[in-house]
Design a protein that fits this description.
Number of helices: 9
Low-confidence stretches: none
Distance between the termini: 9 Å
Order of helices and strands: EHEHEEHEEEEEEEHEEEHHHEEEHEEEEH
Mean pLDDT: 95
Helix content: 25-40%
Radius of gyration: 23 Å
CATH architecture of the largest domain: 3-Layer(bba) Sandwich
Number of strands: 21
Largest sheet: 7 strands, mixed
Length: about 425
């Protein structure tokens, strides 16, 4: 018997981003009540964890919240453009205004525990019980900084990308940006545009063409069915789950980023992966050439995939000149004295780790990542949404959230319906 003094809700959703609010909307369409708990304010990451010049790297037409598609329901006028930070928050805020979820902001969920045929949800304002729980907190809880960052001289300013807003936060002098995923390469551009000396530790992130053969590469890939491939169908699911996102930019109407060209045209100093720091000394692995080649290999692979689709469909599309490397490293520099090189700051752009330590359920693998099938775990009633490759490439992005949230709402409805006879019999 449930404690009548403890408030109860059929579904508790933890996380007030687009994934959590999309799920709440889809549940309401099925007549299922839910409460969304958000530790900050709705869409906090979009509003507060992005830099001033941030923009989408996927076209606006991919913004497809449930019954709230850009250009169809929202009324956007630039489907092939890339919304800036304030435009993104306006879009998601409009979705929240339309759907009006039962949302409790500035409430921290501190513990989720299976309890009989439901769950106990402990929060900063009290305890709830529920029949089902949806974890929609994403995978960006803890900023990653390597242990050797603590050995860096205090004379060198350090910041993680989560706190970066603009170049004005940094002291005069050169900056070493560590990481070449989506964030690192776009922050590189922020600094080069400001006329700052940029040094870049190049990791193994892949890169993508932007426009190719007359269209945005993502348009070709969408038409070819690339974004419909599920993780269960993927030829290399381990790679899909662990690979860093391909880097490109939505700035100035969209552009591709070639680090070789950045070296030549913007005088960006390139190094291999950062390996260690001590005082003002930074040490790098001798893998710059390999990482650049691997990024180009990914870039060319996407071009070939598009070429094959065009040929298969008999599409008349303009040809592109063959790819040519504009620069090769003459040597692999493995040690640099930051002070001597005029580098006064380090910007960490090497990602985040999720933190699920507050969930008391045996649904995690040895690395602490949740195990599920399209968000549904082996613990009855416990679900995840909003993570990359929950089902498809678009699952952690705007493109796939409608499909994922509708699917999860269906599964929750089924589980709730299956539990009713048991409760009546009891």
């Amino acid at each position: 018997m449930k404690d009548t003094q403890t408030p109860h809700v059929p579904v508790a959703i933890v996380g007030g981003g687009q994934a959590g609010l999309s799920t709440a909307y889809c549940l309401r369409q099925k007549g299922i009540d839910s409460i969304v708990f958000e530790r900050h304010e709705k869409f906090h990451s979009w509003r507060n964890n992005r830099w001033d010049s941030f923009c989408l790297v996927t076209p606006n037409w991919q913004c497809r919240l449930p019954d709230f598609h850009y250009g169809r329901d929202y009324g956007g006028t630039d489907p092939d453009g890339f919304m800036l930070k304030d435009e993104i928050t306006a879009y998601v805020d409009a979705f929240a205004e339309k759907t009006r979820p039962d949302l409790l902001e500035h409430v921290d969920v501190t513990r989720v525990t299976p309890d009989g045929d439901g769950f106990t949800v402990e929060t900063s304002i009290g305890t709830w019980t529920c029949d089902q729980v949806v974890i929609a907190t994403g995978g960006y809880d803890t900023p990653i900084e390597p242990s050797y960052a603590a050995k860096l001289s205090p004379d060198i300013f350090q910041m993680h990308s989560v706190d970066y807003r603009n170049v004005g936060q940094f002291p005069e002098g050169g900056v070493l940006i560590v990481g070449t995923g989506q964030s690192g390469v776009q922050l590189m551009e922020d600094f080069t545009r400001a006329g700052r000396d940029v040094h870049l530790a190049v990791g193994p992130a892949p890169r993508s063409p932007r426009r190719y053969r007359g269209r945005d590469a993502t348009d070709w890939l969408h038409d070819a069915g690339h974004y419909e491939i599920t993780i269960a169908e993927h030829p290399d699911p381990v790679k899909a789950l662990t690979q860093t996102n391909h880097y490109m930019s939505g700035r100035d109407g969209g552009k591709e980023i070639d680090l070789r060209r950045a070296c030549v045209e913007d005088s960006v100093e390139l190094y291999g992966s950062l390996a260690d720091m001590d005082g003002t000394t930074a040490r790098f692995l001798p893998d710059l050439r390999q990482n650049l080649d691997d990024a180009d290999r990914s870039y060319l692979g996407i071009r070939r995939q598009i070429d094959a689709f065009i040929a298969q469909q008999g599409i008349d599309a303009p040809e592109e000149p063959p790819f040519a490397k504009v620069w090769e490293p003459a040597e692999e520099r493995t040690e640099v004295d930051l002070a001597a090189a005029g580098i006064t700051s380090v910007l960490w752009a090497i990602g985040f780790r999720p933190d699920y330590s507050w969930i008391d359920a045996d649904v995690f693998d040895a690395r602490g990542k949740p195990v599920f099938d399209r968000g549904v775990t082996a613990q009855p009633g416990l679900h995840f949404i909003g993570l990359g490759w929950l089902n498809t490439w678009g699952s952690g992005r705007f493109l796939g959230i409608e499909e994922d949230s509708r699917y999860l709402a269906d599964r929750i409805a089924e589980q709730l319906a299956a539990a009713v006879p048991q409760a009546c019999h009891a």
